UniProtKB/TrEMBL annotation, chain A:
Coiled coil: none annotated. It comes from Penaeus vannamei. Residues 276-331, 348-422, 437-456 are annotated as: Disordered. GO terms for molecular function: exonuclease activity. This is Cell cycle checkpoint control protein. It comes from the Eukaryota. The keyword Oxidoreductase does not apply. PANTHER family: CELL CYCLE CHECKPOINT CONTROL PROTEIN, DNA REPAIR PROTEIN RAD9.
Automatic annotation (TrEMBL), chain B:
GO terms for cellular component: checkpoint clamp complex; nucleolus; site of double-strand break. It comes from Penaeus vannamei (Whiteleg shrimp). GO terms for biological process: double-strand break repair via homologous recombination; meiotic DNA integrity checkpoint signaling; mitotic DNA replication checkpoint signaling; mitotic intra-S DNA damage checkpoint signaling; nucleotide-excision repair; telomere maintenance. The lineage of its organism: Eukaryota, Metazoa, Ecdysozoa, Arthropoda, Crustacea. This is Checkpoint protein. It is found in: Nucleus. Keywords: Nucleus.
Length: 456, 286
């Protein structure tokens, strides 16, 4: 692959690299006949970012497929390089813009080097050779079109909104309704939420360029990655489009400047709180099957594990085990979210002995309907045409595949959501809590210290 | 107990932010005292000499707030004392400043998940729609029996008093000296001389300011008669002094420095509507 970025576009390209560097530590470079994609994924696989620069962005573009016709069938080199190394090349955007006349990027499959050559003014040439590792395509599986909600706004509106949050804020919650959007900082249960600053920002629907919110809902996602989107979008002055559906399924931000380039950020969102899941899982079996279908993408955040603990407490664990072995192979035991599925399934079987079968079948039927809603990272090796998925989200989606292709499950196991912090409280609570009555404690009615007079 | 104040003037919001920033730099925890006429920020521990506070900032409510409502604990004790982390308040106020300057800021005492100082800011937006941001800064109420800890400090019996040179100038001097010694000596006489100096085993550096104006204090003239050239010195922690000088302090019109020999440095910042007193205890082991 060989391409030349004209001086006028180098700053935009540099910005894209900067924003990718805020997310991941490895930069995936994937040339195709239409253009080059630069992608990254963060270490917890909860955020994926991709910029596609089409051939129109470059003054000269050659994806290398012509040269390789001699050994037909071999596709162009796809590789990854260390983000830090690449960031160093484009470190100072101001200098880049001032000095660089053109930038030549070459991907040499024979020497395993990604070459970046900056032709600066006064005939200075800077050449960087970055060693790469050849790899497969990095692709998040998501479907923008299936998201019922989308908004589009000037990046300025969003970046002004984000400025109101503290720099050390990790996550924000986006609460939407047909009239307005409320952005709240997400405060964790620990340490004391009463000691944290709570910030609520209201944006009227009229502030957005396009506003399509079907109903009320809220999603929580990481602010750091969102800032990465905005640091790119604001200077280039492009609107940001944001697609999302329900908690647990990804939120997708796009910065579209086709036919020149396009940026896509896919961020995992926090799954719904456990209590709502309990109530849902206690409803009918049909709904259970659907519930398990809703992707519970939870990067390093709480989710459903409390439910599983609850479940295992109040019943029929052995019973479940036996049923599960008939249903599934043991290779996925121990994976939190899949256990949740089993337990839900068996819970429903308590209602109706045949329900388990029904639910698993209905999951199968549902599969083609909801083909790619979870945020799954697929490493597709296009040579054999077989797509193996590494899902950063939930195991439930792959469950229906069990009856299907065996080979698909031979993949590294990425643990699901870590246990909720709240579970600790559940485990370590007083064992006599249920029978404890403060009235029974001797001397409970004796007042040792008077109430203070400062009521509030 | 009620408190509600609204600021609409951008200059007032900025000035208020500056005061809070100054307080935040000096201590982790401060006390906010609200009375019908004034609002006070008090730091009790920073430079405590005896029981007097380290910092006493007095803000005239009428200048800052366009609307001001408060109701204390009772009619005879019509005051509110709150304990808060000034850092949190200053970060919140700074976020208002950094986006675009807010059109108005409303400060209220509310009870949400805990007692909170709620800041409601109306931000300008690109369109006609109002953009509202609400920050809840948690606070703690100080019960009445602890109120006596927050009395206004008495004017110390100082030996020398001068107006400081522009703080920015002084800051640069102190910054250089900070690398040499952990302590700085401030000496002044009654002829308007101020000597700022550090002494180490190897070097002695001092900067002399001469002919500084001197404030006139009532009832002090008689004791001022003897030996006007004599320098009165107090040695203080240079880091604390630098911290104090670091902020712009909202460009105070006058800064008075009173020196109680070997005991305290008392700094008095006077602005039109804010007065700020800062006490620095003399370091003992110099």
């Amino acid at each position: 692959m060989k391409c030349v970025i004209p001086g006028i576009n180098i700053k935009v390209f540099g910005r894209a690299i900067h924003s990718l560097a805020k997310i991941g530590e490895e930069l995936y470079v994937e040339p195709s006949s239409k253009g080059v994609a630069f992608r990254t994924v963060n270490s917890s696989r909860s955020a994926f970012a991709s910029y596609t620069f089409s051939s129109g962005f470059f003054s000269q573009y050659d994806d290398g497929s012509l040269n390789q016709e001699k050994d037909a069938g071999e596709e162009t080199v796809k590789c990854k390089v260390a983000m830090k190394a690449c960031l160093n090349v484009f470190k100072s955007l101001a200098t880049l813009e001032r000095t660089v006349e053109r930038c030549k990027i070459t991907l040499d499959g024979e020497e395993d080097k990604l070459g970046i050559q900056l032709n600066c003014r006064h005939g200075i040439n800077k050449t960087y050779n970055l060693s790469f590792i050849e790899c497969e395509t990095l692709q998040a599986v998501f479907d923008r079109e299936s998201c019922p909600n989308y908004i589009q706004s000037q990046s300025r509106v969003l970046s002004d909104a984000v400025l109101n949050f503290q720099l050390n804020q990790d996550e924000v919650t986006l609460c939407v309704s047909p009239e307005k959007i409320i952005i709240r900082n997400y405060v964790e249960d620990e340490p004391d939420p009463a000691k944290a600053i709570h910030t609520v920002l209201t944006l009227e629907a009229g502030e957005f360029d396009r506003y399509n919110i079907t109903g009320e809902g809220e999603v929580t996602f990481c602010l750091k990655e969102f800032r990465a989107v905005l640091t790119f979008a604001e200077p280039v002055n492009l609107p940001v489009t944001c697609h999302f559906s329900n908690p647990g399924s990804p939120i997708i931000f796009t910065v579209d400047n086709r036919p020149m380039f396009e940026g896509t950020f896919v961020l995992a969102t926090l799954a719904e709180k456990s209590d709502s899941q309990i109530s849902r899982s206690q409803s009918t079996s049909k709904q259970t099957a659907q519930t398990t279908h809703t992707p519970k993408t939870v990067p390093r955040i709480r989710s459903s594990s409390q439910t599983s603990i609850n479940r295992s407490q109040n019943s029929t664990f052995d019973n479940m085990r036996s049923e599960q072995s008939t249903l599934r192979r043991s290779d996925q035991i121990g994976e939190v979210s899949s256990r949740l599925f089993e337990k839900r399934a068996s819970l429903s079987s308590a209602h109706n002995s045949s329900a388990l079968q029904t639910s698993s079948q209905s999951s199968l039927e549902n599969k083609p309907i909801l083909p790619s809603s979870p945020l799954r990272l697929a490493r597709a090796s296009t040579t054999n045409g077989n797509t193996s998925h590494i899902n950063m989200s939930m195991r439930e989606m792959t469950l229906p595949d069990l009856n299907g292709d065996e080979g698909e499950r031979e993949e590294e196991d990425i643990p699901g959501t870590p246990p909720a912090k709240r579970a600790k409280k559940f485990i370590f609570q007083r064992c006599f809590e249920s029978t404890f009555n403060p009235e029974d404690v001797p001397g409970h009615d004796r007042v040792l210290a008077e109430d203070s007079d400062e009521g509030f | 107990m009620k408190f509600r104040g609204k600021m609409t003037d951008i200059m007032c919001i900025k000035q208020f932010t500056v005061v809070v920033n100054t307080v935040a730099r000096l201590a982790k925890v401060c006390t906010l005292r609200i009375t019908p006429q004034k609002v006070f920020f008090i730091i009790n521990d920073a430079g405590a000499v005896g029981s007097s506070p380290g910092l006493w900032a007095e803000l005239d409510q009428g200048h800052f707030f366009n609307e001001f409502n408060m109701e204390g604990v009772s009619e005879e004790n019509n005051e509110i004392y709150l304990e808060l982390q000034p850092d949190k308040l200053s970060r919140t106020l700074n976020s208002l400043k950094s986006s675009q300057s807010a059109r108005s800021v409303k400060i209220k005492l509310t009870r949400k998940h805990s007692p909170c100082l709620t800041l409601e800011a109306e931000l300008p937006s690109l369109s006609v729609h109002a953009r509202l941001v609400v920050h809840d800064v948690p606070v703690q109420l100080i019960p009445r029996r602890q109120w006596h800890l927050y009395h206004e400090p008495e004017m110390p019996q100082f030996q020398a008093s001068v107006y400081l040179p522009p703080l920015r100038q002084l800051k640069h001097v102190i910054e250089r000296m900070k690398t040499l010694s952990p302590y700085v000596s401030l000496s002044a006489n009654r002829r308007g001389t101020l000597v700022v100096g550090v002494t180490t085993d190897t070097v002695k550096v001092s900067t002399h300011f001469r002919h500084l104006p001197m404030p006139v204090w009532e009832g002090q003239e008689d004791s001022m008669e003897s030996a006007p050239e004599e320098l009165h010195t107090a040695t203080v922690d240079i880091k604390k002094f630098a911290l104090f000088l670091h902020g712009e302090q909202g460009g105070p019109t006058k800064v008075i420095c009173n020196i109680v020999e070997d005991r305290t440095i008392h700094m008095f910042l006077i602005n039109d509507d804010v007065t700020l007193q800062y006490f620095l205890p003399a370091a003992t082991n110099t």
